Each structure stands twice: as structure tokens, then as C-alpha cells.
Amino acid sequence: MRQTHLFTKTRKESPKDETSKNADLLIRAGFIHKEMAGVYDYLPLGLRVIKNIEGLIRKEMDKVGGQEVELSSLQNKEIWEKTERWDAKDIWFKTELNGGGELGLGFTHEEPLTQVMTNFVSSYKDLPLSVYQFQTKFRNELRAKSGIMRGREFLMKDMYTFALDKEQHEELYAKLKEAYIEIFKKAGIGEITHPTKALGGTFSPYSDEFQTETGSGEDTIHVCTACNIAYNEEVKGEFEKCTCGSDSFETKKTVEVGNIFNLGTKFSEALGLSYKDESGKENNVHMGSYGIGLGRLMGTIAETLSDEKGLVWPMSVAPFQVHLVRLGDNEEVVRSADEFYEGLLREGVEVLYDDRDVSAGEKFNDSDLIGIPLRVVVSAKTVQSGEHEMVERQSGKTHFVTESSLVDTIQSYVREI
Ligand SMILES: [Zn+2]
After folding, report:
1. 222 with 365, same domain?
2. 264 C-alpha vs ligand 1 centroid, how far in Å?
3. Is 391 found in the same domain as 274?
4. Span 291-300, mean pLDDT?
5. 159-173 average pLDDT score
6. How far does the centroid of ligand 1 lie from the alpha carbon of residue 42, in Å?
7. Per-residue pLDDT for 203 more than 70?
8. What spacing in Å lies between the alpha carbon of 241 and ligand 1's midpoint?
9. pLDDT tens digits for 352-378?
10. Interval between CA 233 and ligand 1 midpoint (Å)
11. Same domain for 45 and 84?
């Protein structure tokens, strides 16, 4: 994409009404627009990141046998009354039909999906099943000051598993836990993200959260220095020693980027999701749920990997792979940069091409702020030498590349994902 065609512009000043680091950076770089507190629009650069995160997660969900669906946002009150969550939850956005009757905007989807599955599950032969979606959730949060990390309207990947019994559920749960570790690794935050035990659920003493280290974190975890398992502050009291036997912990401020729950038979019992076993006996289906907020993950990457100059995207989710920056506007430089750009496009490389007539300083500042992993400069000097300067955004390392060696370099990065 030519930057002269990109309708968003960077801005120097921080938005006045924004206190979170992720939204400040993303607004200044033109990735998102704030509609109101806790509600954000994704602009071209931001949407490309969200779509890449979605693709990365989808791949891992499909690997574990997930089947993708998309359920509605509008929710039927009657279904939620069966689990007593219509009146009990204060984060609902509720609305009324013109002809009378209440509806809710879904904040999660255990109830409706369980209801859907009653149409298709009747025998032990129908299980296990894993079903997931990327879907917009609505939560009437009292506090929404964390940018895109805690929205009132946000895109979430939620998977639900349906199993014969506890044993089969635990197999699915273990697979999903591994898939989550893989997702955060590929999203570039694997080293700072800890699988964490937390208090949770009616059916097991704890749930598993995935907590990422960040200075401004809203949670505190205790990481075992011997085995790296972490415990949320709220539970920690019960675990004076780690399950591995060690009692040496390191304390970290974190944000939660994902969570997985054992739901037991709470929803299947309430909504009548059961199957006949081999002896013909009726049993309730054993369920699990597995969430990742896409904006929350994007915000976490923005906050934890950025530096004083701006955003730093890992190749796996970056809006573009290469930022091609043209310096100068003499005919030869323009022709050479245009040809380079067209050549990269033909090779399938995702390029943002800064073809604007602005100063070198402005181009470099914008490039640092936007945070595309590789920056390649085409100038009168590099046209003459036939080699172009390539800078890695994250490490600052400089290399000299020709058009064909750049394609090889990019492919080697892509292979690592
Ligand atoms: Zn341990």
C-alpha cells in the first residue's frame, strides 16, 4: 500500500482523554479511533493487526479440531433465565423489542451454544466436539480506562468443548492449554506470558489464566523460580509451596491475556444437553470454555513490546512486513523505489511504501511510531550502490540488502512463525 493512499495520519500529541499506554500509542500511530470510553474503531492499520491475530488463533484452534461458527449478538432472555444469569449479571447491555419483550447483547455464549448443541448431540458417538467463534461481545463495564484492553464492545475468540465425561474433558483441556501457549509464543509475548493458577469455577479448585508481564498490569502473580508455574495473588495464600515443592517465588505485575475454564455440567444440566451412553443411559455433557480477547491481545503486544519511539510489531501480527521508505524525489530514486515496491508486491510481500513528499526525519519518526518489523530505505545513495539499507525495528540492527536478498530475508522471518 502506498502511504499517500492511507487515509490515516500519525499525530505527535497524546489524546487528552486517554490514560492507557496501548490506546495512546495506537491512536497516535493511526491504528484506532476512540468512539467513546471503552469503545474503539479499528482503522486500516489496526484492522490488519486484528485480522492477523485472528488468523494466528484460527490456525491453532483448527489444529485441535475446532469447528468455527458465528452466533448472534442478540440474546434470548429465556435461555439465560434457565441458568439464572439473566438477572444475576450486572454487565449486560439489555434492550427492548418494539413489540414488547427484552433482549440482551451477548457478553459470552455458553447458554446459546449449549442450546444449539441440543439439536445435534444425542449419542456418545457425537462426542467430543470443540466449537469456536470470533464474535463481538458487549460488556457494560463500570470502569473502562484500559484502552482496547477492556472494552465495552470487543472482538473475542471463544471456544467451548463438549465431552463425555471428566476424563475426556481433561484431555481436551490439556490440548487447549498447549494451543494457548503456542498462540502467545507466536504473538511474540511467549517469554513474558505465564500459565497461571487462579481461583475459579464450581467444578475445579482453580482455573488457568495466561498472564503477561507488564509494568502497568492490573494483576499480581507469583512465579515459581524452580518450575515457572505462576499463581495469581488471589489464590496464592492456598499455595505456600508450589506443586513442584519449591517455596521460592518471584512477584510480577501482569495482565490477563487468556483464560480457560472447566464448566462441568452446569450449562448442560440447565439447558438439557445430554447423550445416551452405550448402555442407553442418559448423561449430561461435560463442558469447558476458552477465551482470548483479540483487542486485549493486541493492546498487550502494543504495551509490552513498544519502546520510547513507538510500536514494535512481531512479524506474525504486523500490519505490513516491510516499510519501504523513499528518501528524495529525483526521477531515478522515484523510479527505483517504485520498481522495488512493485517487485516486492509480485513476490507476495506485504509492503507499506512511504512515497510521500515529506522530510526524511518525519518519515523515520512515523516509521518508528508505526512499528513495522523491517524498514528498507531507498535513496540516491542506495540506488547508486545497488544495495538498500534494511533496519530491524526491534533490535535496531542494520543490514544491506538487494531486492532478491530482501525477499529471502522476509521468507525466513515468515517461516519462523
Ligand atoms: Zn514450582
Report:
1. no
2. 27
3. no
4. 96
5. 97
6. 40
7. no
8. 8
9. 999 999 999 999 999 999 999 999 999
10. 15
11. yes
